Amino acid sequence: MLLTKLYVTRLPGGLPHEGRLIAGHAIFPCALGRSGVTHDKREGDGATPAGRFRLLYFYLRRACLLNTPWRLTRPQDAWCDDQHSFLYNHALKLPTRLNHEEMWRVDNLYDVVGVMDYNIRPVTRSRGSAIFFHLATSNLDPTAGCVALRHEDMRKLLPRLSHQVCVYVT
């Protein structure tokens, strides 16, 4: 059965960045933003925004079978986090003078990146950018505001995702 809903919550009694992702009957530990979850997201606050977000598509370092839209990540791929740009919170190509996040990371945390539709249509500058669903470190270190799963958990989850997945963050 394909999953259409993922639920993300803070781990009760845990540190602000410690969470769990519920996918059907499976529960996975996940990493959240270093400041926990917020209902008032701001650029650079280190918090994961609360709400319901569609997974629009995935960037993948290597091709794999997915039921959701995806594209291969290229070394020139970037994501704009420059609050003064009309391209704020959109994909970019390198090189650029704008503040940005590189999608081709050497730490491999962006080998799998789901783009969540947070603050994309419409975009409000300074309300947060590059809110992704991506790979976590093995220790589940905090993210800058994303939701992240360990590699082995992401590998188990990806084939089970429907082409219309919503992530509920509370």
Please give a structural write-up.
This protein is mainly β and 170 residues long. 4% of the residues lie in helices and 40% in strands. It has one domain: L,D-transpeptidase catalytic domain-like. It contains one helix and 14 strands. The protein has an eight-stranded mixed beta barrel. A hairpin with a 2-residue loop joins strand 2 and strand 3. The longest helix is centred in the last third of the chain and has 7 residues, at 151-157. It is globular. The two termini are 24 Å apart. The model has no long low-confidence stretch (mean pLDDT 96).
In the residues, how many domains can be counted?
Answer: 1
Any idea what the shape is? globular
Share in helix: under 10%
Q: Any idea what the radius of gyration is?
A: 15 Å
CATH topology: L,D-transpeptidase catalytic domain-like
Helix and strand composition category: mainly beta
- Strand content bin: 35-45%
Which CATH-level-2 architecture?
A: Beta Barrel
Instruction: For the record, give the distance between the C-alpha atoms at the N and C termini, rounded to a whole number.
Output: 24 Å
Q: Which CATH first-tier class would you pick?
A: Mainly Beta
Q: What string gives the helices and strands in order?
A: EEEEEEEEEEEEEHE
Number of strands: 14
H/I helix tally: 1
Mean pLDDT: 96
Low-confidence stretches: none
Q: Biggest sheet, strands in spatial order?
A: 1-2-3-13-12-11-6-14
Biggest β-sheet, characterized? 8 strands, mixed, barrel
